[in-house]
From TrEMBL:
UniProt keywords, alphabetically: ATP-binding, Cytoplasm, Kinase, Nucleotide-binding, Transferase
Entry keyword Cytoplasm: yes
Entry protein name: Guanylate kinase
Location of this chain's protein in the cell: Cytoplasm
Boundaries of every Guanylate kinase-like domain copy: 2-180
Length: 189
């Protein structure tokens, strides 16, 4: 049975960085590309970074049951397309979902066997600095993301695993240990 790994936490906590580092050492892990209604940022590509959908198409696909999970976050919608997840699982590959906390709660209900990891910032101040330092969002968007983060951080104890992302190397090692404990052992001989 292919495993599903849910990596979640507040915006700006470093989920994407941790996942990139994890996949560099575990290329067998597939990343399920999420759908979103937020605008494409410079350097992003449709189908590689996100499936960029307009509000109308996203709503239609929700109504059609095309999402395994979906959530609204800071005024935008995000979700995991069922076909994207099923494709990877059908190939027998373990899958990583980088999703919002609301979506992770939905996955917990529909796929209780999924391994859930909540990434925590070292402090709220560091989270704010990271969001501001990215330079991808305006002050209003950052303020909305920080307000949502306060609520999200309250739910961290509902998750199987917690990683405080205060030291990148240690955080990556913790994530690798969680994943490796759930993957079938490989024999190099």
């Amino acid at each position: 049975m292919a495993r599903v790994f849910v990596i979640t936490g507040p915006s700006g906590v470093g989920k994407g960085t941790l996942i990139r580092r994890l996949r560099a050492t575990h290329p067998e892990l597939r990343l399920s590309v999420s759908a979103t209604t937020r605008p494409m940022r410079e350097g992003e590509e449709h189908g590689r970074d996100y499936w960029f959908l307009d509000d109308e198409e996203f709503a239609r696909r929700v109504d059609d049951g095309d999402f395994v999970e979906h959530a609204e976050y800071a005024g935008r919608r995000y979700g995991t397309l069922r076909e994207e997840l099923d494709r990877h699982l059908g190939e027998g590959a373990p899958v990583v979902l980088e999703i919002e906390v609301q979506g992770a709660a939905q996955i917990r209900e529909t796929m209780p066997e999924a391994v859930q990891v909540f990434v925590v910032p070292p402090s709220f101040e560091v989270l704010q600095q990271r969001l501001e330092g990215r330079g991808t969002d305006g002050a209003d968007t950052i303020a909305r993301r920080l307000e949502v983060s306060k609520v999200e951080l309250e739910s961290q104890h509902e998750f199987d695993h917690r990683i405080v992302n205060d030291d990148l190397e240690r955080s990556v090692a913790e994530l690798e240990a969680i994943v490796e404990a759930q993957l079938p052992a490989t024999n190099g001989a």
